[in-house]
Amino acid sequence: MADRNVCIVGAGMDRWGVREASIVDMAQEAAKDCFDDVPALKKEDIDGLLFASSYCGRSAFQVNAAPVVAERIGIQPTSICTRVDTLCAGGSSGIIMATGLIKAGLADVVMVAGGEKLYTPQRWETYYSEMASIDHDWDGAQGMGLPPPFFSMTAQDHMKRYGTTKEQLSAVSVKNRRNGANNPKAQFQKAVTIEEVINARAVVPPLGLFDCTPITDGCAAVILVSEDKAKELTDRPLVYVRGTAQASLHSMSMNWPGEDLSDWVHLRTAAKKAFERARVSPEDVDVAQTHDCFTISEIIEMEDLGFCKKGEGGAFVESGQSDFGGKVPVNTDGGLLSCGHPFGATGIRQAMEIFFQLQGRAINQAKDAKIGLTHNLSGLNVEHTILIYGREP
Amino acid sequence: MPVPGVPILEGLYPSTLDMYPFEAKEFNRVHQFYENLRENRFTTTKCTKCGTVSFPPRVACPKCNSDSLEWVDLPTKGKVLRFTEEVAGVPLGFDSPLIHARIELEDGRKLICRIANCKEGELKVGAAVQLFAYEVPPMIVEKRGGVMEESPRMFFAFEPVK
Q1: CATH architecture for segment(s) A6-122+217-238
Q2: Considering only CB atoms, which residues of chain A are within 8 Å of chain B?
Q3: Does the pLDDT value for residue B156 go beyond 70?
């Protein structure tokens, strides 16, 4: 059988933030929102579930969560039903895997859902659990689980090497918080001024409160199907998965491949492969959701994804090139800085926003968007994951 | 100590929540690394076939796949390339300021580690640092017949050379 083209036909998520709900509750909310988005889909059509969650084993004492979620949301998968864990890129990993399964004919209609319940009844445990997210034996024991110190050093390296300024970092936050202000699902729905960002309480200098994504509870879900099935299910424009890549080159604290911490070789490696597979170049991308876990991350991503030259990310963002009307609008739904970051759900939330953008029904719509890109970095920058979507296969 | 809501855990040691590695020989094939720390040696494995020195230590060579490895010493001195001081929001088990640095060892190897025995504002880029090996709480291992035994543990950071 020839490879089949794969489309997203539906997407949904719950309200993200500090939620009075369990992971299984939120999975049901996200699935309901997703089912509501594609009314022609019958639950019995779904033959696969990939559930992306890193922390359910730690924070909910629930491993093998996929069958639990399948039962609660009322589906009975027969082709695949499994959990995916790539921390911050879990949802994107699920979409890559679902695409492969559908392409190869091993599954036909796959729900990729994911999310985290990170807030525990006592706050210490939420933070303590973060030390499970890295190389436990070598990095966790050094107290390196919480990301801000690592990204502080990354920002210092970029500022020292390229002259990137605190104002340029802040411009990322101002743009993304403005984009999230009208997103009813976002954790933060309030714009911030550049002065507020610059003068905010320091987390780990040069990063302040508004430079960092918060800790978030939330879930999201998308439905992936073959092109033929998509045509049966929807009259909306089809949105195809065109190219994917995921690159991992080193451990967090050892064997870093770049010259300094602002040199993201593994992102360039993933980008080269994803663009080749999608048969497009960075100039072709009309809208992108990149992993703004910290403001500095988005600046470096603009460079190493190829949207601007290395070292020019700060100026690129500050001059509006990553905003509406610029070269490529980035994080149009508010990104991680507004929406928050329930790890396994983030890649799915990004896919949902690109899906809406390419169908012309996003809340903050980019003009004539035909090619969209999502990007995640995971862990303390140990892995980069890219998906490129298009209106054509 | 009773654990409210989890009566079955009373007096038990949940090792899966332990922030330090299971270093004991029964659980770890690179336990020699931790034993060498006791002599203030910073060691790793070298492949006897292709000569690749890997850090962290391995059980098989990541380059040539040979499992004929020997322990070699890495430098215990280096310099700070970049550092960060976390004052608020330090994770449980660590004191404020929690300082991390990307350092370069004398052989050119770069790694990120914790900087111990250092006050806030004291560290500088380029500062000389050295290995600081220290004892961490023991792991409780169940031995034959249900006997609980304390297995001593070491861990490492680097510290400013004073």
Answers
A1: 3-Layer(aba) Sandwich (3.40)
A2: 124, 127-128, 130-131, 136-146, 148-150, 152-153, 156-157, 203-204, 251-256, 260-261
A3: yes
The reply to whether B77 touches chain A by the CB within 8 Å rule is: no
| Lookup: tokens for A299 | 């600046």
Largest CA distance in chain B: 55
Condensed to tens digits (0 to 9), the pLDDT of residues B67-109 reads 999 999 999 999 999 999 998 778 888 988 999 999 999 999 9
Find which of A123, A153, A154 to mutate to test the B interface (most B CBs within 10 Å of its CB).
Answer: A153
Residue B45 CB: number of other CB atoms within 10 A? 23
Can you tell me the distance from the alpha carbon of B97 to that of A358, in angstroms, rounded to the nearest whole number? Answer: 47
Q: Which pTM was predicted?
A: 0.97
- CB pairs < 8 Å spanning A and B: 83
* A143-212+240-390 matches A6-122+217-238 in CATH topology: yes
* pLDDT on residue B15: 87
* Domain segments of chain A as ranges: 6-122+217-238, 143-212+240-390
How far lies A225's CA from each of A85, A103, A274, A360, A385, in Å? 22, 9, 20, 20, 21
Q: How confident is the model at residue B160 (pLDDT cuts 50, 70, 90)?
A: very high
How large is the ipTM? 0.94
- Sequence-ordered list of residues with C-beta below 8 angstroms from that of A165, at least 6 positions apart, any chain: A159, A314
Q: Rounded to 10 degrees, what is the CA torsion of A140, A143, A148, A149?
A: -120
CATH 3.30.460.10 describes domain A143-212+240-390: no
Q: What letter represents residue A31's amino acid?
A: A
User: Is B81 within 8 Å of chain A by CB?
Assistant: yes
Q: Which residue has the tokens 């961490």?
A: B136
* Per-residue pLDDT at B2: 57
